[in-house]
Amino acid sequence: MNINLRFGHPGSYDYETILDQFSGTKINTLRTSSIPLVQFWKETEGNLKTLLESLNLSGQNITLCFEYPTRPLAGRGKSSMTDLMIIGQGFKIALEAKFTEYAKNSKPETIAKWIKKGDDSNNRQLVLSSWTKLIEPFSRGLNNKSIMNISYQFFHRTASACYDTNNAFVVYQVFYDKATDSYRDNFKKQITEYVKIINPESNLKFFLWEIEADQKIMNVEESPFEEMKIKPLYEFGKSSLTEIVPGN
């Protein structure tokens, strides 16, 4: 199996260069989801094998792109940045990491709120239409009124997975510990409701990958990604990867 690690769209990197790229990003706390995400994927081959087998996928040439950008097809706006996009022959897996975010923000911003808060609602409607066009071929039918209740981040992450592929997967990699464990059920319910609204065809699937994460290092003097080169900041425990099926 040939594996390429990338940050955005440059050439293939080794793992320590990936850490160098992340060292330049702003981190407010060691409990930011990008930290356990990047550490988890240090064991690239084993974890990728687990993921592909669970999704019934295979391939020899797999590209992993951290912070993968997808621009809207219309309107002005920043690219949608996927935490980790995994690209194989005939499929894309958009992987979104969550840790304390789902505990701190139990009511994520819906599409309806996102449109109202902008200065140029017409432009936001164009951006929304472009994401919708990407998802439509992967849906049994989108209701324009219902999608207003979906988290905007969830919607454009799904659109990113659907762009330029025949088979799309969205995987929420949810890290949890004692402080965040009790919030997982509510997050699962939210994601399940969103999937029902998307009403996916068989070529679009959603998964929840729940991973126990025990923080071993409480403070670092420099970038946590630099510290990660020396020792792990987290220890991972239980792991469960399940499909989110509409109606369940």
Write up what this structure looks like.
- The protein has 248 residues and is α/β, with parallel strands linked by helices.
- It has one domain (2-243).
- The chain is built from 9 helices and 7 strands.
- It has helices at 15-23, 34-40, 44-54, 101-104, 111-117, 121-135, 152-162, 184-198, 224-227, and strands at residues 2-7, 61-70, 80-88, 91-98, 167-176, 204-215, 234-243.
- It has a 7-stranded mixed β-sheet, sandwiched between helices.
- The chain is globular.
Tag the structure with descriptive keywords.
248 residues, alpha/beta, globular, 9 helices
Brief write-up:
This protein has 248 residues and is of the alpha/beta class. 33% of the residues lie in helices and 26% in strands. The longest helix has 15 residues, at 121-135.
**Relative helix content:** 25-40%
Rounded Rg? 18 Å
How many separate helices? 9
| Mean pLDDT value | 90
How many individual domains? 1
Binned strand content:
25-35%
User: Strand sequence of the main sheet, in spatial order?
Assistant: 1-2-3-4-5-6-7
N-end to C-end Cα span: 35 Å
Largest β-sheet summary: 7 strands, mixed
